[in-house]
Design goal:
- There is one protein chain.
- The chain is built from 7 helices and 10 strands.
- The chain is an alpha/beta fold.
- Helix 3 links the parallel strand 6 and strand 7.
- Helix 2 crosses helix 6.
C-alpha cells in the first residue's frame, strides 16, 4: 500500500459511497477496512441504492463514488472495471430449465423476464437479453430490488437474469441459478462523475485496486465461480 500511504495519513474530508446490490462482494469488507485504516480522519458514508437508480447516486449527486454494474448509459460518468462475473438465469425450482447445468441465452431470452424499474435503456437491454430474442415476448415485469425479483421468480410468474454472485449471497429455496454460456459477463465497476474526482475518490479507487490485486484467489473465485477448481456455488 506504499503508493497510497505516500499521499499521507492525514487525509480528511467526506466520501459518499453509493453501491448497488451486493457491492464488491467478498472484497467489500477488506476494501472498507483498508480505507479506514489508511485514512482514519476521512468520513466515509455509505448508501445502498435500488434498481431504480443504476448510477447508485451519481446522477443525483448524492454519491461521490459508486459501485455499479455496467452497462450504465447516464452521460458524464467515468469508471474503472473492478471485476467481471458470469450471468446466470434465475428460474423457479419447477421450471423446465431448473435441472440444467448450463443453458444458452436463446433458451431463456423469449420468456417473461424481470427488469429493474429504471429508464436506462442500455441497462434494460442487457438484463433482458434483447440481443438474443427471436420473438416478441411479453413485456418484462419491473422490480425495485433483488429480493422482490427473487420472490417473483419463485412464484413462476417470470424468470430473471442476474450476476453469478446471487447464487451464493442470496440463495432461495424456490429458485435455481443456471449459468448462461454464450453471453458477455457482468462488469462491476467503480464509477464517478467525469471531472469531479476528489482526492478521496482517487484514493479509494487505488486502495480497492490494490486490495483486489493482492487477493488473486478471491478474485478468481468471483470471476470464475463455476470452475471445477473453486467451490460450486449453486442455489
Amino acid at each position: 500500500m506504499r503508493s497510497v500511504r505516500n499521499i499521507g495519513l492525514g487525509g480528511s474530508g467526506s466520501l459518499a459511497l453509493g453501491f448497488y446490490t451486493l457491492a464488491m462482494l467478498e472484497l467489500t469488507t477488506r476494501v472498507l477496512r483498508q480505507f479506514s485504516r489508511t485514512f482514519p480522519n476521512a468520513d466515509l458514508r455509505m448508501q445502498e441504492y435500488s434498481f431504480v437508480d443504476a448510477t447508485a447516486g451519481l446522477a443525483s449527486r448524492e454519491s461521490d463514488l459508486a459501485v455499479v454494474r455496467l452497462p450504465v448509459s447516464h452521460p458524464g460518468l467515468d469508471w474503472e472495471v473492478y471485476f467481471t462475473e458470469p450471468r446466470v438465469a434465475v428460474v423457479a425450482a419447477n421450471h423446465r430449465l431448473a435441472s440444467r447445468e448450463r443453458i444458452s441465452a436463446a433458451e431463456i431470452a423469449n420468456e417473461t423476464l424481470t427488469i429493474g424499474r429504471t429508464d436506462d435503456a442500455a441497462y434494460r437491454a442487457f438484463w433482458t437479453l434483447v440481443d438474443h430474442r427471436t420473438a416478441v415476448g411479453t413485456p418484462p415485469i419491473e422490480t425495485t430490488s433483488h429480493a422482490e425479483e427473487l420472490e417473483i421468480v419463485a412464484t413462476g410468474r417470470a424468470s430473471s437474469i442476474t450476476a453469478a454472485c446471487a447464487a451464493r449471497f442470496t440463495p432461495h429455496a424456490g429458485v435455481r441459478f443456471v449459468p448462461i454460456d454464450d453471453v458477455p459477463p457482468v462488469e462491476t465497476a467503480l464509477a464517478w462523475r467525469r471531472g469531479d474526482e476528489s482526492p478521496l475518490v482517487r484514493q479509494f479507487v487505488q486502495i480497492a485496486r490494490e486490495v483486489r490485486d493482492g487477493l488473486p484467489e478471491v478474485l478468481r473465485a468471483i470471476e470464475d465461480p463455476f470452475s471445477e477448481h473453486v467451490p460450486q456455488w449453486r442455489g
